Amino acid sequence: QVQLVESGGGLVQPGGSLRLSCAASVRIFSGYAMGWYRQAPGKQREFIAGISAGGSTNYADSVKGRFTISRDNAKNTVYLQMNSLKPDDTAVYYCNAVQLAVAGGRYWGQGTQVTVSS
Q1: What is the DSSP letter of 93?
Q2: Residue 114: beta bridge partners?
Q3: CA 22, 23, 26 angle in degrees (round to 5)?
Q4: What is the C-alpha separation between 29 and 33, in angstroms, rounded?
Q5: How would DSSP label each residue in 19-66?
Q6: Phi, psi at residue 49, to the nearest 5°?
Q7: What are the CA-CA distances from residue 83 to residues 15, 23, 76, 116 (Å)?
Q8: Residue 1 pLDDT > 90, yes or no?
Q9: 3-class secondary-structure state, position 76
Q10: Cα(75)–Cα(99) distance, rounded to whole angstroms?
Q11: How far is CA 51 from the centre of its chain?
Q12: Rounded to 5 degrees, what are φ and ψ at 30?
């Protein structure tokens, strides 16, 4: 089973930065696309950022220019660098992995809380 272990969440002031990490239990080099989602209380889970096995990235409009997703395949880890944080960024952030060669091969981390508040 693919397990995703997240870290890096916490409390930060508006305008501050955090870096989230997601460590995978398997080698992700070429077989997985990775991403980050978030869910605020009372809201649906939304896509934030994704990175393909080849390293191409895409972002939700709400975070473009502020968040950066990256992957370190040697460490089987995906990162989300979050800058210029806003209170609206407050949510539980989830790491996601899609196993490209396996139908239904979608996995989620446990979520990590990010709170942006003065």
Answers
A1: E
A2: 10, 91
A3: 135
A4: 9
A5: EEEEEESS--TTTEEEEEEEE-TTS--EEEEEE-TTS-EEE-TTTTTT
A6: -155, 150
A7: 7, 21, 23, 11
A8: no
A9: coil
A10: 17
A11: 10
A12: -125, -5
Residue 75 has pLDDT above 90, yes or no: yes
Q: Name the β-bridge partners of 112.
A: 93
Beta-bridge mates of residue 82 = 18, 67
Report the distance separating Cα 55 and Cα 115, nearest Å. 28
Give the mean pLDDT of 88-113.
95
Look up residue 84 and give its DSSP letter.
S
| Mean pLDDT in residue range 23-27 | 93
Structure token pair of residue 20? 């989230």
Lowest mean pLDDT among 36-40, 91-95, 102-106, 114-118: 102-106
60, two tokens = 């939700």
